Amino acid sequence: MMVAGGRENVMNDEAWLFVYGTLQPGMSNYGVIEAWVREAARGRVRGSLVDAAAGLYPALVIFPEAGDSGAVSGWWLRIGIGGLAETDRLEEYGGPEESNDYERIWTADADAPSRQGWVYVWPTRRGCPAIGSSKWPPSPD
Fold this sequence. Notes:
Layout: E1 14-19, E2 37-46, E3 48-51, E4 58-61, E5 71-80, H1 81-90, E6 103-108, E7 116-121
Parallel strand pairs: 1-7
Antiparallel strand pairs: 1-5, 2-5, 3-4, 6-7
C-alpha cells in the first residue's frame, strides 16, 4: 500500500509513528490512538520544539532554521493503520499537497536510524518561540 510521500511503510496494516506532544503515553490526546497501539519505545528525532499554543501543545520543526539543532525526545508507537487515520484527523493532516496544519513526513530515529516511521511537523517555526527543551512538557535538559 502506497501512502503519503511515496513511502511504502504499511506492513500488516501497521505503521510506526513518532509522537512528542499530547499523543505521548499519559498525555491528553493519547486516548485518540491508545486502542491502536501495539508497541511503544522511547526514541529521539532530529529537530526542535516550539510552543504552538501558549503551552498547550508543541510543534516539531524538523527542518531547522538558523540556530536550531539537536534532537527531540518522544515515543515511537507501532500502531494499527486506523490509528494513523485518527492522528491525521487530530493533526489536521489531509494528505500531501493539501493545506495542512501539520505535515506528516517520514523520518528516522536520531540514535537508531534503522527505526523509521511517520512524524507530524511544521516546516518552519511560524513565529512561535522555542520551548528550550528537548522534550514536552518542557523540563530542564
